[in-house]
Amino acid sequence: MLVLAWPFSNFAKLKKKFTLSCNHKSTLAKSLSAGNGCIWLIPHFCHADALSFLGCLVDENNEIHTLYRPFRNQVINDFVKNSRERFGVKTINRKSGGLFKILKVLKKNKTVAMLFDQNAGGAGTRMKFMNRECSCTTLPDILYQKFKPSVLFVYTKRTGFWSSSIEVEEMGELKDGQLVIQKANRWLEQKLRNEKVLSESWLWLHQRWKPGAGKQIMQQSDD
Question: What percent of the chain has pLDDT over 70?
Fold first, then answer.
């Protein structure tokens, strides 16, 4: 419902309903200081589309590019695309040279935002999430190995009807042999197990554990 109303919502009201603390804004501002670009890992929490609002809240030099999977219906696709680009976020079609465009974004020390907790299908790698196998995207690790960008978890925590606080957390250092997607999965597991409001607002019905998807089972190191 928020996606439908987003293009018509008043800017001042949105700013009151979707809040970003000074500390989190500072974390976003510092994310490009190393010169290697930044990846925002976004989970499917309620109001996730509101993160496009960050396009006008962060430093104007921090261009935000986000991957999206196009809808088959062109009318719906154009509506959602325009909605997400309303506040300056630039969208990248996954099916039209998306990887090449993402590489260029990070090379220019800009930000790439991506949903990391959806089913990656046959192109993904089978790993365990919540003690069950699922297909996970390998894209964050491909990008991390090439550029060593900063990695942030950026997400919404629902506070009311069409109202959330925007949260930002640094991923931190990887242990020997640990993958970015492994750490992201463990992070999300902890959120779902320990924070009721996040557990209740995560999209549990998006075929996260579709049987048989993914190329192989990864040997996962301990956190």
Answer: 95
